[in-house]
């Protein structure tokens, strides 16, 4: 334990020393004015490791003033939380934030408790470096977003292949069957009709499969028309009345944007149907400055309280698809109902 002699009046470091030194987290003992009285062994090693310019490992400095000087939102929250603790607020105070260092930022998980006398408190402030975990989480989000994007591209390729190639072969075979001479030997007519029926079924299946994989309207007419087409079918099937707030001359967008926003509409309307209990919804699409804003608003129950929420893949998928495009998703309880707002940068067609 590294302790400043003389400034730790009323605090007996021997009492804490062995326990705090045994911890892997960096721990500082701070007095009621924010002054660092002592730091543990892990703190000393961390200061050396990151080559931080802390005089005497920060002992004697004011922790709160340091946070104030950093001026980042994370440090501001920490300073406010610690002041609240010192003033008698309930602990422990916990917060995760990024600490900017000379080369890059590290992610810190901070946990603080108050100890000592009511009118002369101390804080034990523990910091864990969770940068590796954070980087892994961010990497995973990015990889999942890439995967979703790759899946969309692949679906589009398969749909096009099925529609433009396989379906054409089948249609050709049907035509050839029809052109077979009617004076065929007896018995072949029945056979020919059966084969024609099979080909018709195969064609229907392939067309609807291709449609589900990647609706042709999205490719040929663009997002606005594809949304109208999908949503009209949806309201027929689901008894939900839909209103569109989409101008007739809404422009074509980059492919990746059109696909991602289309999937958001599909997923959000599926949620309206499954969870909201609403009888109507509004789908809006507009350009807002440099962004495109897609809104799906219902008039049902709204999101359940956080504690009752069951995490699904729908909302997370929307969020990741938009983050991949450098956009974002906002959910707003609109009383009544839920407003899903999908923001994506406005990129005109061809600028993928
Ligand atoms: N429009 C809505 N109205 C009310 N609650 C909603 C709405 N949309 C989503 N929710 C709530 O949010 C939760 C998460 O939605 P999400 O789409 O992520 O998962 P899910 O629909 O339950 O399952 P899936 O993974 O099949 O989509 C839902 O279980 C539901 O409680
Ligand atoms: Mg869902």
How would you describe the overall organization of this protein?
Strand 7 (241-246), helix 9 and strand 8 form a beta-alpha-beta unit. This protein is α+β, with helices and mostly antiparallel strands. The protein has a six-stranded antiparallel beta sheet with strand order 1-3-2-6-5-4, with helices on both faces. The chain folds into three domains: 2-129, Beta-Lactamase; 135-213; 216-345, Heat Shock Protein 90 (2-Layer Sandwich). It is 48% helix and 23% strand. Helix 9 packs antiparallel against helix 10. The longest helix has 49 residues, at 131-179. It has helices at 13-22, 41-49, 63-70, 73-86, 131-179, 188-213, 216-220, 223-238, 255-276, 314-324; strands at residues 2-3, 26-31, 36-39, 93-100, 105-117, 120-129, 241-246, 280-288, 291-298, 328-333, 338-345. The structure holds adenosine-5'-triphosphate (ATP) and magnesium ion.
Bin the helical content.
Answer: 40-55%
- Strands ordered across the widest β-sheet: 1-3-2-6-5-4
- Show unreliable segments: none
Give the overall shape: elongated
Order of helices and strands: EHEEHHHEEEHHHHEHEEHEE
CATH superfamily of the largest domain: Histidine kinase-like ATPase, C-terminal domain
DSSP strand tally: 11
Query: Kindly state the mean pLDDT as a whole number?
Result: 88
Second rung of CATH, namely the architecture of the largest domain: 2-Layer Sandwich
Distinct ligands: adenosine-5'-triphosphate, magnesium ion
What does the radius of gyration come to? 31 Å
Task: Give me the secondary-structure category.
Answer: alpha+beta
Write the CATH fold name of the largest domain: Heat Shock Protein 90
Number of structural units classed as domains: 3
CA-CA gap between termini:
57 Å
Strand content: 15-25%
Total number of helices:
10
